[in-house]
Amino acid sequence: MSEYRDVVRSVARRRGQTLLIGGKSLGGRVASLIADELYEHGDIGGLLCLGYPFHPPGKPHQLRTRHLETLQCPALIVQGERDPFGNRADVEALTLSDKITFAWIGDGDHDFGPRGRSGFTRKGNLAVAADAVAAFAARLAPAR
Fold first, then answer.
1. Mean pLDDT, 10 residues at a time, over the chain (144 residues)?
2. Residue 40, SS3?
3. Domains parsed from the chain with CATH numbers
4. Cα–Cα distance between 135 and 115 in angstroms, integer?
5. What's the predicted TM-score (pTM) here?
6. 3-state class (DSSP) for residue 65
7. Which of 89, 93, 137, 142 has the maximum number of C-beta atoms within 10 A of its C-beta?
8. Number of neighbouring beta carbons within 10 Å of residue 40
């Protein structure tokens, strides 16, 4: 986390736009652990998590969400509806910060891939994810 923090601060000093941090799965989790600190200091404008690992597969009682309950940084989590690290029913039962918005990927797994006969496609799901990220970024105010 310290290396991630150092890189973000280095980039934040050189940019002229709102900076988003985040990542896929564990990368998003790491970013989420330092997001409030970076947001408070004006280094970032938001957090993006693609397929957040809410819990290990098959172990919904081993939550990785305590810090997400009080998150103050605006965040978008793009999550597959049937992600084994936190499906829609699992996640909607949690108490999380109201600063977090969700984009649910239709019949998507951890990589947003749908089942063959679901009516969804990987290409379509990736387009939904990209559109959600673009809309989230557009809503953010410039970094302080």
1. 84 78 96 96 94 97 97 98 98 98 98 96 98 94 52
2. helix
3. 2-139 (3.40.50.1820)
4. 26
5. 0.92
6. coil
7. 137
8. 12
